[in-house]
Amino acid sequence: MKVLLFFIIHQKSERMLIRAVDLGVTEYESCWNLQRQLFDLRLADAIPDTLLLTEHPSVYTIGRSGDPNHLLAGPAELKQKGAAFFYNDRGGDVTFHGPGQLVGYPILDLHNYYLDLHRYLRDLESVVIRVLDRFHIRGSRIEEYTGVWIGNDKICAIGIKSSKWVTMHGFALNVSTDLAYFDRIIPCGIFEKGVTSMQEQLERAVTMEEVVHELLREFAGVFHVDIERASINDICSEGGTACLQESRLL
Question: Cα dist. 248→28, 31, 34, 106, 242 in Å?
């Protein structure tokens, strides 16, 4: 019994390791393809828990429970704006991704943490709230909605997919995003709320590097893990080049 007890304590004292990969700017469809490949690899226990960080060129996406009527721009206007459009398999409604927005895609096996998707969503919110606090911005939750808010304005949207407790998709934090793009949607299907960004709140420029640094620190703190920066080839070293070429990220 003493040996067993020691083993349990020893196991619980070890911190999980998450590999963080900063992809830079990626086309939405290419990065989504990469996510799906890494998701399948994580389901097969072939790669470690991974956090992808990226920015996307202008793109609108609608989740599996979304209403296409919440995208107010038609095909001609989307083309004029240079914005792509995709239906995807995350939860939630319509949102916008674009330059100046930090997008995070945690591909985690929640068996290593807890089997509770509501807690997972709250923890993602906590990460962002703590990041904002580092910049002296007071973020908060609104009980009936997912995401992070500054008063009645959303600063971070969250939408995930999970299968067999492995996650994909994630969060989108407005750092210096052109908020005019949100005028052509009803963000997350919420009529009565607005959107904001860190730059708007601070009334000064904020670099993505500053935010990434704080985000990795706070992600490690909330999830009680160690985070190690890595390249995508480090993550999927077995056939990694083919994986990247297929996703057009090389």
Answer: 11, 9, 9, 20, 10
- Which residues 6+ apart lie within 8 Å of 6 measured at CB? none
C-alpha neighbours within 13 Å on the C-beta side of residue 14 = 9
Domain range list for the chain: 17-247
Question: Which residues are designated catalytic?
Answer: 188
Under CATH, which number does the domain 17-247 receive? 3.30.930.10
- In sequence order, what DSSP letters do the residues of 174-231 get, joined into one string? ESS--GGGGGGB-GGG-TT-EE--HHHHHTS---HHHHHHHHHHHHHHHHTEEEEE--
Rounded (10°) CA dihedral 88, 158, 147, 121: 120
User: For residues 225 and 221, what is the distance between their CA atoms, to the nearest angstrom?
Assistant: 7
Per-residue pLDDT of the chain (250 residues; tens, 9 = 90+): 444 433 333 334 478 999 999 999 999 999 999 999 999 999 999 999 999 999 999 999 988 877 777 777 888 888 888 989 888 888 888 889 999 999 999 999 999 999 999 999 999 999 999 999 999 999 999 998 999 999 999 999 999 999 999 999 999 999 999 999 988 877 666 666 899 999 999 999 999 999 999 999 999 999 999 999 999 988 876 444 445 554 555 4
